[in-house]
Amino acid sequence: MLDSRVAETLSQILGPKGFTTDAQDIAPWLTDWRALYTGKASALASPASVAEVQAVMRFAAEHQIPIVPQGGNSSMVGGATPDARGDAIILSTRRMNAIRSLDAQANIVVAEAGVILANLHDAARAQGRRFPLTLGARGSATIGGLVSTNAGGTQVLRFGTMRKLVLGVEAVLPDGQIYEGLAALKKDNRGYDLTQLLVAAEGTLGVVTAASLRLVPDILDRAVGWLGVESPEAALSLLQRLEAESGEAIESFELVPDGSLQLVLQHIPGTRAPLGGAHPWHVLVEYVRTNAAAVAPEVALEALLATALEAGLCQDAALAVSEVQADAFWKLRDSISEAERAHGPAMQHDISVAVEDMPRFIREASLAVERAFPGVSVNAYGHLGDGNVHFHVRAPAGVNGPEWRLSTGKAASHMVYDLVTAAGGSISAEHGIGQMKRDELGRLSSPARLTALRAIKSALDPKGIMNPGKLIP
Question: Which of 4, 53, 156, 327 is the 20 to 30 Å CA partner of 352?
Fold first, then answer.
C-alpha cells in the first residue's frame, strides 16, 4: 500500500483523472499482452503534461518510489509490467496524446508519448505524408513505447527500425530533470548521443514524453502479392532478385511458414488461403509507388512475379486485385501471434542473424530444436530481408502450459539463444529485453557490454527507481 501522505501529494499533483490507488482501475495494466507476467502496483499515475511527469519523477526520486513507464501495454517481453513487490507506481503516458506539430515540408512530426501509432498514421496521411513504421499492434502501441523498445515492424527493409526514424527525444530523467532533445539537428557534436541512448532503453533511464520523427511522402498506390515458395533459401533469392530489378519499390517482404498460415486459418475468423495449392513456405510482398511517373505497382509487380515463376524462384503467386484483398493478405501475416496464442503455449524468440545466414539458421536450428525436444514444432516467420525472424517453439498438444514453459519451454529457449549466439546473432531483434530475456542477456553478453550497460544505468538512475527488473541483468 502507498503511504497515505504520498498518495495525497501525488493526487494533488495529478488531479482525479491522473491518479488512482483503486485496485480495479489498476488491474487491467498489471498483466502483459501475452498474459505471461502479472505484477502488482501501489498506484496508477497518468500525467497529462511534461510538467506533471517532472513533478512525479521528482517526488519519486525523493521518496525512492519505483516507477514503471507504460504506454499501450503491448510489450512482447513483459517490459511494461511491474514486478510482484507491489511498491511500484505505473506511470502511464496515455493521456499525453497530442501531436504537437506536423511539418509536411520538412517531413517532421513531433508526437507525444501517448500518441497511438494508428492515429499518427492517419494524421500524417491527411497531410500527404506517412510515418513509415507499422506493426500488428498499431491500434494500441504508442510512440513512447515504440521509441523505448526501438520497435521494428514490416517496413524495416526500406526504412529501418525506430532508431532510424527518431530525430529527437524529450524525456524526464530519474531525478526529474527534462532532457530537451526534440530539435531535429542534422549535425550535433555535443558528446554522447543522449537521444539514441534513450531509444531502446525500455524506460530504465527515464520517461520518454515526446519524439521528433521522420516522415516520408505518402504512397500513391501499392500492389500486394502472396507467393508460395519451396524454402527460405528460395525466398531470399527471390527477394534479392526483386530488389535488384525494382530498387526501393519493395517495402515489405515477409516470410511465413505453412504451419503459421494454417494456425491463422484455423483460429482467425474470415481468413482464407490466397493460393489453391499446398506450399511449405509463403511470402508476402508489397510494392509501392510514390512517383506518378513510375510504372503502376500492379503492372510492375505482376511482371516481376512472372519472371520469378519462370526462373523457378516461386511455385505460385496471387496478386491482390483490390485494397480489400490486399488488407486480407496482410491480415494473415499480422494475425500470426494472435492465432498462436489461441492455439496453445509456445516459447517466442525474436532473434536476428546476418541476412545471408538466416535461411540456413532457420533450417538447421529448427531441426536441432525439434530433435532435442520431441513433440515440439518450430514456426519461424517474419522479416527475412532484415535477418530477423520470430522463432517460436510450440508445445505439443495437451500439455499444461505453465508447467511446460518452466520445464521444456525454458530449456528450448536456452538452446535457441545458444544457437543464435553461436551464429553471431542477437537474442532480441526488435521486441527488447524486458524481463523475459534479462537473465539470458546476462548469461550470453560479453563482459564489456554488461559493464557498459550497468555503468550507464547507475550513472543516470543511481537510486534504481526506473523500471526495476527490466533490461539490465
Answer: 327
Average predicted confidence (pLDDT) for the chain:
95
pTM of the model: 0.90
Are the beta carbons of 144 and 114 closer than 8 angstroms?
Answer: yes
Q: Where are the alpha helices (DSSP H) in 348-409?
A: 358-372, 401-404
Cα(413)–Cα(347) distance, integer angstroms: 7
Taking 90 as the threshold, does the pLDDT of residue 76 lie above it? no
The Cα 223–Cα 241 span in angstroms is 17
Continuous segment of H or E residues that includes residue 454: helix 447-460
36 has a pLDDT exceeding 90: no
* Domain annotation for the chain: domains and CATH numbers: 4-92 (3.30.43.10), 99-217 (3.30.465.10), 221-336 (3.30.70.2190), 344-433 (3.30.70.2740)
Q: Cα 37–342–402 angle (5° rounding)?
A: 40
pLDDT interval class at 153 (50, 70, 90):
confident
Asked if 162 contacts 150 with a C-beta cutoff of 8 angstroms, the reply is yes
> Across the chain, how many H-helices and E-strands are there?
18, 19
What is the mean predicted confidence (pLDDT) over 193-215? Answer: 97
Any alpha helices (H) in 199-269, and if so which ranges? 232-246, 258-267
Alpha-carbon span 445 to 459, nearest angstrom: 20
